């Protein structure tokens, strides 16, 4: 790389600090994957302009850095003028820097390691209170290629990410289909049992439909007894996670909300207890716990009747016919949080097979979904490998370990601000399983 220059960040990025006096400019949000997005379009709530006075104004082509999460690659390039948090750092780029190139360089693992070392505070960069100050950021060394080579790198990465996206999004679609297939299998067996020739009866519920004639149809209040047990702050923290049921908080719950500092009011959950997220049950955030721990005092925790096998209940209470009834029993405004009310829930209808049949259903369910679960796990591993390949390829290209100038010269030009992957959006292009192989061969 004889033509690459050793520079410091401060020689290519100049911090700027312009503030709004009206708060009327569009508010932008900085996301880890998507970069800078419109706050309202991303689902944010409207904020009165008076509360935004003093926010920083960013203009097209400028770089935005989240000081608290810089080490995890939370940077964005502005495509429009708008407002960002006053705690963010804004930078103008020198003319010899291609915006999309520097963004990719700053997101590489090597740069992330530097930022983590130069940050001040406590934490890892993903959690805690690390902060990267401008002087420390500006002192970081980097190797900068000529503008022409930056353009070649940007062109190649745009092409490469498109190919990787096509392969990864194809696998994501497959996993969603497998997930829907799994739900369909569970719903059918939970409500119809294992005997295809069994006599059916109309349950009288438009949600439950027909069930085997020898099953009981009981009210929720006959099978579930709410309990409140506080004062167990030393127990492991749990969360109810959509699609996963009751899991340890550090396995997913922390992505949804932060726990209270004082856990004394949190409720004890015993193995076999039903746990429902009061505000998300209508979406399916329910589970029968297999572990002991504590959950938010806002959750519904209940003991199950001895008429229910706990594993059967776990599948039953998360099934579509039950979740549809939770929707009716929940009240609220909008589609985000709707609170579950016990006076409505107590009359929810629950199909109850004989205990021996519940256990047969559980065995059949485990046999039926095992193959699907294995397929989902395999496809998920393949997606993870694609993302690892993307990270490694990007790092090698932007640091000059791989020279892509000749390859890039054969590719069509691109007009992009950010060449990073848009994994939150599904590329509807035809599936192309050979996409990654082509990149490797190139």
From TrEMBL:
<keyword id="KW-0680">Restriction system</keyword>
<dbReference type="GO" id="GO:0003677">
    <property type="term" value="F:DNA binding"/>
</dbReference>
<dbReference type="GO" id="GO:0009035">
    <property type="term" value="F:type I site-specific deoxyribonuclease activity"/>
</dbReference>
<keyword id="KW-0238">DNA-binding</keyword>
<keyword id="KW-0378">Hydrolase</keyword>
<dbReference type="InterPro" id="IPR044946">
    <property type="entry name" value="Restrct_endonuc_typeI_TRD_sf"/>
</dbReference>
<dbReference type="GO" id="GO:0009307">
    <property type="term" value="P:DNA restriction-modification system"/>
</dbReference>
<protein>
    <submittedName>
        <fullName>Type I restriction enzyme S subunit</fullName>
        <ecNumber>3.1.21.3</ecNumber>
    </submittedName>
</protein>
<dbReference type="InterPro" id="IPR051212">
    <property type="entry name" value="Type-I_RE_S_subunit"/>
</dbReference>
């Amino acid at each position: 790389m004889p033509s690459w220059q050793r520079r410091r960040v401060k020689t290519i990025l100049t911090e700027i600090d312009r503030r709004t006096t009206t708060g009327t400019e569009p508010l932008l949000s900085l996301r880890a994957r998507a970069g800078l997005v419109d706050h309202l379009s991303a689902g944010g709530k409207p904020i009165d302009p008076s509360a935004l006075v003093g926010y920083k104004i960013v203009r097209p082509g400028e770089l935005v850095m989240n000081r608290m999460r810089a080490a995890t690659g939370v940077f964005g390039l502005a495509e429009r003028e708008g407002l960002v948090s006053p705690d963010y750092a804004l930078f103008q780029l020198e003319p010899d820097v291609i915006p999309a190139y520097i963004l990719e360089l700053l997101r590489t693992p090597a740069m992330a390691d530097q930022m983590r070392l130069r940050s001040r505070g406590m934490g890892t960069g993903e959690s805690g209170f690390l902060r990267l100050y401008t002087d420390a950021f500006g002192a970081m060394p980097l190797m900068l290629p000529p503008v022409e080579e930056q353009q070649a790198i940007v062109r190649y990465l745009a092409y490469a990410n498109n190919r990787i996206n096509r392969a990864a999004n194809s696998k994501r679609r497959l996993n969603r289909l497998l997930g829907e297939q799994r739900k369909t299998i569970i719903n059918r067996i939970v409500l119809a049992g294992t005997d295809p020739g069994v006599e059916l009866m109309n349950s009288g519920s438009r949600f439950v439909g027909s069930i085997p004639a020898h099953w009981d149809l009981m009210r929720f209040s006959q099978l579930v007894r709410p309990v409140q047990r506080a004062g167990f702050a030393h127990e492991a923290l749990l969360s109810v996670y959509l699609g996963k049921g009751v899991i340890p908080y550090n396995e997913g719950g922390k992505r949804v909300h932060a726990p209270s500092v004082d856990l004394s009011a949190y409720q004890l959950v015993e193995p076999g207890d039903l746990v429902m997220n009061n505000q998300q049950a209508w979406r399916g955030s329910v589970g029968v716990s297999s572990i002991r721990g504590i959950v938010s005092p806002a959750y519904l925790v209940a003991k199950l009747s001895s008429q229910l096998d706990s594993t059967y209940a776990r599948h039953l209470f998360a099934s579509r016919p039950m979740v549809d009834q939770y929707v009716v029993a929940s009240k609220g405004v909008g589609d985000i949080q709707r609170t579950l009310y016990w006076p409505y829930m107590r009359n929810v209808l629950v199909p109850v097979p004989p205990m021996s049949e519940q256990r047969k259903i559980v065995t059949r369910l485990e046999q039926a979904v095992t193959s699907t679960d294995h397929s989902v796990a395999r496809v998920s591993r393949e997606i993870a490998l694609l993302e690892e390949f993307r990270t490694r390829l990007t790092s090698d290209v932007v640091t000059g370990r791989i020279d892509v100038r000749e390859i890039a010269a054969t590719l069509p030009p691109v007009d992009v601000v950010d060449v990073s992957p848009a994994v939150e959006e599904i590329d509807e292009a035809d599936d192309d399983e050979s996409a990654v192989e082509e990149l490797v061969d190139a």
